């Protein structure tokens, strides 16, 4: 049996979510922060880019045709990170996540053999996160998508312990996908907000999970890091050195930081075959999954070709192309 080709990094736009927050206090401030972080030149490109790709993110038939053109059999669909809205109050956040979960499930239900989905949880209200995760699972989704932090909270915050425990207990997938970088205006030119900001946020968030002991306390957690985990996998040697050399670095986690990479999953979207080979070396071929960031311009239009360019052994190529994801998503092999 041949495993299907599975893309675990594909996005959905949800007008239902945006209509809920439209005009609410806090939205204008959040948009202003996003504008400062990206800068005017990037914003001028972003608008037309998203509009041109809108049908692929809202119309399931258009999505499926694009998948056929890419040679992708199954997508794991997650809401666009622009829908996080971590500024929202508790009542709005609960409504937002429920609406996002239900709309994502409805989109995937149009082609249940080819689309699987992830929902949202309100990281800014940790007391709601477990309930939102349960709702996503009740909707038939496989888990949830989260950012690298919430305002005033890192993923190592003890307030998230019930969420991590529930995700591990249920086997839910947690897709770590940053939105925005706290380096703010330092990255407001040349689209550094994305090209530097995203891999930075991935590295910081994963480091918090490793060094705080979250992964020690929840060894069954099934977490997928977008963008190949950012800078961390290729610079994990520095983390290992700190863990060996300094008692403050080693205080929170039981094992060498690099060992935790083999407990996580990573998508293949690193834009460089040499970096992809290094990711496979440090994390293991069984921990890397095909990812495209469909259909954004920072994604891979042909993710299978990008994977093939790494020149991996055939068994590793097949595992990353779909075998690993088929097992993780519990897909029936054809």
From TrEMBL:
InterPro entries: ACMSD, Amidohydro-rel, Metal_Hydrolase. Gene3D superfamilies: Metal-dependent hydrolases. PANTHER family: 2-AMINO-3-CARBOXYLMUCONATE-6-SEMIALDEHYDE DECARBOXYLASE, ISO-OROTATE DECARBOXYLASE (EUROFUNG). This is Amidohydrolase. It comes from the Bacteria. GO terms for molecular function: carboxy-lyase activity; hydrolase activity. It holds the Pfam family Amidohydro_2. The keyword Lyase applies. Keywords: Hydrolase, Lyase. GO terms for biological process: secondary metabolic process. GO terms for cellular component: cytoplasm. Residues 6-331 form the Amidohydrolase-related domain.
């Amino acid at each position: 049996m041949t495993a299907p080709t599975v893309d675990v990094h594909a996005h959905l736009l949800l007008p239902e979510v945006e209509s809920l927050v439209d005009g609410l206090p806090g939205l204008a401030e959040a948009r202003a922060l996003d504008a400062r972080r990206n800068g005017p030149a990037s914003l001028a490109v972003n608008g037309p880019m998203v509009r041109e790709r809108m049908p692929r993110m809202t119309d399931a038939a258009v999505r499926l045709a694009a998948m056929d053109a890419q040679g992708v059999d199954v997508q794991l669909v997650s809401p666009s990170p622009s829908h996080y809205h971590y500024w929202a109050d508790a009542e709005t956040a609960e409504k937002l996540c429920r609406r996002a979960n239900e709309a994502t499930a409805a989109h995937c239900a149009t082609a249940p053999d080819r689309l699987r989905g992830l929902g949202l949880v309100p990281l800014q209200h940790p007391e709601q996160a477990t309930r939102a995760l349960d709702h996503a699972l009740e909707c038939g989704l496989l888990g949830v998508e989260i950012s690298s932090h919430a305002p005033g909270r890192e993923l190592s915050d003890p307030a998230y312990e019930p969420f991590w425990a529930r995700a591990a207990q249920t086997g839910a997938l947690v897709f770590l996908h940053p939105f925005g970088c706290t380096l703010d205006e330092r990255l407001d030119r040349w689209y550094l907000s994305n090209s530097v900001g995203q891999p930075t946020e991935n590295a910081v968030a994963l480091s918090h999970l490793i060094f705080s002991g979250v992964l020690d306390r929840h060894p069954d957690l099934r977490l997928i890091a977008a963008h190949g985990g950012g800078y961390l996998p290729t610079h994990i040697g520095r983390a290992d050195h700190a863990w060996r050399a300094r008692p403050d670095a080693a205080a929170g986690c039981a094992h060498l930081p690099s060992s935790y990479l083999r407990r996580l999953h990573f998508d293949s979207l690193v834009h460089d075959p040499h970096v992809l080979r290094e990711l496979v070396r440090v994390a293991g071929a069984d921990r890397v999954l095909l990812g495209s960031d469909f259909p954004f311009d920072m994604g891979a239009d042909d993710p299978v070709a990008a994977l093939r360019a790494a020149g991996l052994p055939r068994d590793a190529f097949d595992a990353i192309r779909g075998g690993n994801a088929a097992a993780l998503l519990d897909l029936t092999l054809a």
